[in-house]
Amino acid sequence: MNTTTDRIDLITEAAKRLHKPVFDGKQQPKEPAPRTDKLTNSYKVVSLEEAIRRSGLKDGMTISFHHHFRAGDKVVNMVVAKLAEMGYKDLHLAASSLIDVHEPLIEHIRNGVISRISTSGLRGKLAQEISHGLMKEPVVFRSHGSRGSAIASGELHIDVAFLGASSSDPMGNSCGYSRSANAKSICGSIGYALPDAQYADHVVILTDDLVPYPNRPSGISEIDVDSVVVVESVGDSSKISSGAIRDTKNPRDILLAQQAAKVIINSGYFKPGFSIQTGSGGASLAAVKYIRQSMIDQGIKASFALGGITAHMVKMHQEGLIERLMDVQSFDKVAAESLRDDRMHKEVSSIEYASAQEPGSATHFLDIVILSALEVDVDFNVNVLVGSDGIIRGAIGGHPDTAADSALSIIVCPLLRGRIPCIVDKVTTLITPGSTVDVVVTEYGIAVNPRRPEIAERLRQAGMNIVDIAALKERGERIIGHADPLPFGDKVVGIVMNRDGSVMDVIRNIDA
């Protein structure tokens, strides 16, 4: 079995079993078709309707989308309208998040095209209708890290993923930016789409910029892509930094951001090589820019910034204050362009970002996170999903992921929003357990979880106003009084999943 002849015989037999032709040196190899024609006429480039037919999609199956274009997204509405036109029913829509622009889904739910939804968040008229009981099945809410884990484990099985890309070549190498002169859209990182591309049974890329092969660098590889659909527009880049990720000019938000920065600087974690993330919300996003001067004065550089990357972080990276950017979602065009141009600006999938089941996920190495909240209760539990009126109006995002894994979690939250208290006896909906929350920053003082006495002592020594969280709740009540109980009904309209796959809480319908 050691002769050359024996080895050739073994190879030949193996090839026959695999139905592969064996080149014996006698027949002439087939003349290859011109490479340009192969790419121009790629079998993968088809119409949306043909891509759907090829996918084998059937009633009752699961379709998925990402939300990196945020308020500018055009893919979800476009695809679901086509599915409705083609007569599909009872579909499970698994989007990384749904917002105001997805209001047309209301009619598709009423008409039976969409019967189930899994997502991280809901906003706008769609969220209001679901809160009032629009759907027969409750919406399943997962954090970004949990969604990635559920897709990888098969708990959330995706039959067909429809993924918008700023550019793609004819074979499907695609990403959230483009180097071509014909670029129409840019969203930057497509980290929430990467698990869908990797694990879905069938992957359809939609793009408005078909570029020559190979499209490099690319977040999604051709080996995961089954069809490429060229459309007029996948999204409006000008709207990726709207809503909850706008750059705030609100004086109260700026005050909260400045106070959060002081907490960071005096926390004991502000030292060379620290890592940081800011969540959505004006105050939490703005906090990073207020630590800049202290970093310069003290000669401190951060090892990496994580999560939703902003122009502030890009600027500090370019100044040498942050060594690396790990981007699961670009929060503005500056960040998107930086991802395109800077090799130290890395795109990460939601699994790499925040999966509790992945030991190497970046949140496990995170020192400091600054997050926002709709409500915080006296046990430090946080709600970021359901408003004080009982209406779903937010997103879980990476909130519980980063709070659990970081060394220091800071929540910025005003004492009141209008006539609504934000520090309460018990949160309307539990999203992030108080056991993972360390500090709550309000404009009337800073509360430190009793589990972290060393943090409280450091902040006191720095002259900061440390108060009991119950005292903050009482101060708010003295100003506006006690809120009336919400008129919740008996129907469960939402299920909030924990990071381990168990049920964290449920959301009930609110009477109109």
Structure description:
With 512 residues, the chain is α/β, with parallel strands linked by helices. A 9-stranded mixed β-sheet has the order 10-9-6-1-2-3-5-25-26. An 8-stranded mixed β-sheet has the order 14-13-12-11-15-19-23-24, sandwiched between helices. A 3-stranded mixed β-sheet has the order 17-16-22. A hairpin with a 2-residue loop joins β20 (416-417) and β21 (420-421). The model is unreliable at 17-23 (pLDDT under 50).
| Count of beta strands | 26
Mean pLDDT: 92
Helix content: 25-40%
**Morphology call:** globular
| SSE class | alpha/beta
pLDDT < 50 runs, ≥5 residues: 17-23
Summarize this entry quickly.
The protein is built from 17 helices and 26 strands. With 512 residues, it is α/β, with parallel strands linked by helices. The radius of gyration is 25 Å and the shape is globular.
Key features?
alpha/beta, nine-stranded mixed sheet, eight-stranded mixed sheet, about 30% helix, about 20% strand
SSE layout and pairings?
Blueprint: H1 4-17, H2 35-40, H3 48-55, E1 62-65, H4 75-85, E2 91-95, H5 105-110, E3 114-119, E4 121-122, H6 124-131, E5 139-141, H7 144-153, E6 160-165, E7 167-168, E8 174-175, H8 194-199, E9 202-207, E10 227-230, H9 251-266, E11 275-278, H10 282-286, H11 292-298, E12 302-309, H12 311-318, E13 322-330, H13 333-341, E14 345-347, H14 350-354, E15 368-372, E16 375-377, E17 382-383, E18 394-395, H15 399-405, E19 408-412, E20 416-417, E21 420-421, E22 423-424, E23 439-442, E24 445-448, H16 453-461, H17 469-480, E25 488-497, E26 503-510
Parallel strand pairs: 1-2, 1-6, 2-3, 3-5, 5-25, 6-9, 9-10, 11-12, 11-15, 12-13, 13-14, 15-19, 16-22, 19-23
Antiparallel strand pairs: 4-18, 7-8, 16-17, 20-21, 23-24, 25-26
